[in-house]
């Protein structure tokens, strides 16, 4: 058994830990799939590389309200898919080759499970002989994976998940999507923009049900104009006809049945901790399967750390990257530990419309009993909104402040550039900048999209 | 002669001063044109309402690099023009009617000139009898207008300026644009996107010559791929053929001659102070015709104030609005004067590519002898840049910091969403937030366009 200074399991954000400062460490890195993890290979990056062409397709198909005649004449799906995954696979391969050629690092392609304290058995992906390794420090950076809900016939229908739907050979004529969260809503936009007939099934009464309700309402209204959205609809049974081109029939409680040619399940993800044989290791997991960590990303077992989707309630790449920096620092500076900052974690939905959000929803803030000031400011009331000429869309910036502190507690945008426009609000929240003076203490370019934030802040200041 | 508490000359930003807090004041407002000034009627707003359709046209015409087949099939120019000016004219009309119906306010449609201290003679626009009015306070909010350079034949050719080119009846086949500043570059994008053959003539060696040179270079390279850009070319003579459809011939020093069907001159603007008969009033103007004001927007004459393009070296709407708020406050609080903040004034060029900028250019910073840290970060190196698949474009975020203070002194972006992406940097500069910790002290959504700013800040911190 080889003993290391450090073992990192997983090469998503975990792979960023081992840099030149670890040159004197003996390191093993274990990866059971492609280097780069979910974000690079199955998540944020390929999906956004599909969303931009989808945005272009949607805009070309609908510019009449701007008095422009244009048309969308189809997507070259194989070329697009190959461009996207040609790029990400290349980067993943570079990551693999770099680690495999690196002095002082043993890169193991295989699946690790714990067999003792900081001791792992790795089953090689190529079927070779298992090896046991141990280390002073182990970092669990094993991420998460999509789950299939327990619905009769669903697994047998072999539906796609976000893991593979982006790599399909050809666009289906009709695509069913189970799930109204951000993954389902981004991919619904992608496929609908490319001309696929999309039916999206969600058990809640809106899409993006975990967003602020104003954002969810605007989003759901606009999505429903573009594809078939079935709300308060529960999938009860799936039947797939025989044969490679067999139709898939979705039986729904609360809605009429649906027949599609392909099915995507985007009904949530779960941490991969169950694959690690954590029982008896002293590494606690919670009831969702998340590895329990403290503010320094330490698990409940000595010398074992965790980060990202393996341990975070916010399974987002920018959180995983932050966690990885904290683990990295703390490995290098055991007597000067850094603390994770999960106070103001933003998120975006790169669909159409786009959503950008940070902090508490109104519902969450009211549950906390805050003395709340709330404003909703329409894009349509700004000069940029006039230019959009899309007044009925309802694009808005909603801000929440705590009157007792004068600070922002939540910011939610739905509309063009929402993921960018939320940044000054993230900045204000993160650095404790009070609402009072925030709008007037800086210039906002006229007539840029940022004016919706400026005007919302001015209105909010008037409510404090 | 009627005596007022306050006379405001000009209804651009000047019109925002008189709100309900002036209910007890006797006020006169003088306007020689449309209510709302340049921004609403001839500037920012209509131009941006044309830029968005132009963006849509350009994107539809060029989406092949995204593997999307789409086409631009023409603009309905009369419908677009009527939609834009239908909206702005309506708002201008509302402004006019509101003031004309308001108790305590005399709205005079005419041209004002000084005939004594705080005493004006107003020549009514309808040719009626001139009236004299005086006031305790006079606000000069008279804005600026385009200038024609002194070139033989130019005035006789009756070229368009930004005042009227957006209202033309039909798109010309070929449009000459004299001037490579932001007005010329925005309107070149508009007309080129709509299929007009544009030739842009600039005497400097780049377009946007007053921008940071990296921004100017990237912009000029990309513009030159879309329309005919003539650099280091000086207009020496203009000849217009006889008749309503007479061709216009531009003779150029440093470039071949050009023949066009219509001509736009966008070669700068001048303050309207020369129309006010300021001689002998004690109201000083500088050698550019700008009314000289102190930090409270007071002119050199007792009780006379000025704001916006009439007095600012930065003729931008967001500056004029700020100036107006300062004048408003100071009129209401004569013993608690507010100070104008012109430290960090951003600006954008809503062309394609877009430019967003604040603070010093590298050249300006070097002239000041600053101990400068400079980074240039490419959009192409971010995940969003991968999605754009436009690596050759050269889109970038350039940041400048003063090593002696650790503060940003300039930020310049050229590329998608530049006018929005610059906002967190404006915020940091305005509130004195140090570069150190700025990127890591807040989350940046992955993979949003904002990551180019995050990564540039991280690189900059490494240079301090």
UniProtKB/TrEMBL annotation, chains A, B:
Stretches of the chain forming a coiled coil according to its record: none
A Pfam entry, by short name: Pyr_redox_2
Cofactor(s) this protein requires: FAD
Pyridine nucleotide-disulphide oxidoreductase dimerisation domain residues: 345-456
Keyword Flavoprotein in annotation: yes
Keyword match Metal-binding: no
Keywords in alphabetical order: Disulfide bond, FAD, Flavoprotein, NADP, Oxidoreductase, Redox-active center
SUPFAM superfamilies per record: FAD/NAD(P)-binding domain, FAD/NAD-linked reductases, dimerisation (C-terminal) domain
Family: Belongs to the class-I pyridine nucleotide-disulfide oxidoreductase family.
Protein name: Mycothione reductase
Organism: Nocardioides marinquilinus
């Amino acid at each position: 058994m080889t003993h290391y200074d450090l073992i990192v399991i997983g090469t998503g954000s975990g792979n960023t830990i081992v840099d030149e400062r670890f040159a004197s460490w003996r390191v093993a890195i274990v990866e059971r799939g492609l280097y780069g993890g979910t974000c690079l290979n199955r998540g944020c990056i390929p999906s956004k590389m599909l969303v931009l062409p989808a945005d272009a397709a949607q805009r070309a198909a609908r510019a009449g309200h701007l008095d422009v005649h244009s048309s969308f004449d189809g997507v070259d799906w194989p070329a697009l898919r190959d461009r996207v995954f040609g790029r990400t696979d290349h980067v993943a391969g570079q990551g693999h080759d770099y680690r495999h050629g690196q002095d002082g690092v043993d890169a193991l392609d295989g699946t690790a499970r714990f067999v003792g304290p900081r001791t792992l058995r790795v089953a090689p992906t190529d079927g070779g002989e298992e090896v046991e390794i141990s280390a002073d420090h182990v970092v669990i950076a094993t991420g998460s994976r999509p789950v299939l809900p327990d619905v009769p016939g669903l697994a047998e229908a072999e539906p796609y998940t976000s893991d593979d739907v982006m790599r399909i050979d050809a666009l289906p004529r009709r695509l069913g999507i189970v799930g109204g969260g951000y993954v389902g809503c981004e991919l619904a936009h992608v496929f609908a923009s490319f001309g696929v007939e999309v039916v999206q099934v969600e058990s809640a009464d809106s899409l993006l049900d975990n967003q602020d309700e104003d954002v969810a309402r605007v989003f759901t209204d606009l999505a429903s104009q573009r594809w078939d959205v079935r709300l308060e609809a529960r999938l009860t049974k799936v039947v797939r006809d025989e044969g490679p081109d067999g139709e898939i029939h979705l039986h729904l409680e609360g809605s009429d049945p649906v027949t599609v040619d392909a099915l995507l399940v985007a009904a949530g993800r779960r941490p991969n901790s169950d694959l690690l044989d954590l029982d008896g290791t002293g590494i606690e997991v919670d009831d969702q399967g998340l590895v329990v960590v403290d503010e320094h990303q330490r698990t409940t077992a000595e010398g074992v750390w965790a980060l990202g989707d393996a341990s975070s309630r916010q399974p987002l790449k920018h959180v995983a990257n932050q966690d990885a920096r904290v683990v990295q620092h703390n490995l290098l500076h055991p007597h000067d530990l850094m603390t994770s900052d999960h106070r103001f974690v933003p998120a975006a939905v790169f669909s159409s419309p786009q959503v950008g959000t940070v902090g508490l929803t109104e519902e969450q803030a009211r549950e906390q009993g805050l003395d709340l000031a709330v404003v909703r400011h329409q894009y349509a009331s700004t000069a940029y909104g006039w230019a959009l000429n899309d007044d009925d869309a309802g694009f808005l910036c909603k801000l929440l402040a705590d009157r007792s502190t004068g600070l922002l507690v939540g910011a939610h945008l739905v509309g063009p550039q929402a993921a960018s426009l939320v940044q000054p609000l993230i900045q204000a929240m993160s650095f404790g900048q009070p609402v009072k003076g925030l709008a007037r203490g800086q210039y906002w370019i006229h007539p840029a999209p940022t004016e919706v934030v400026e005007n919302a802040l001015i209105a909010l200041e008037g409510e404090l």
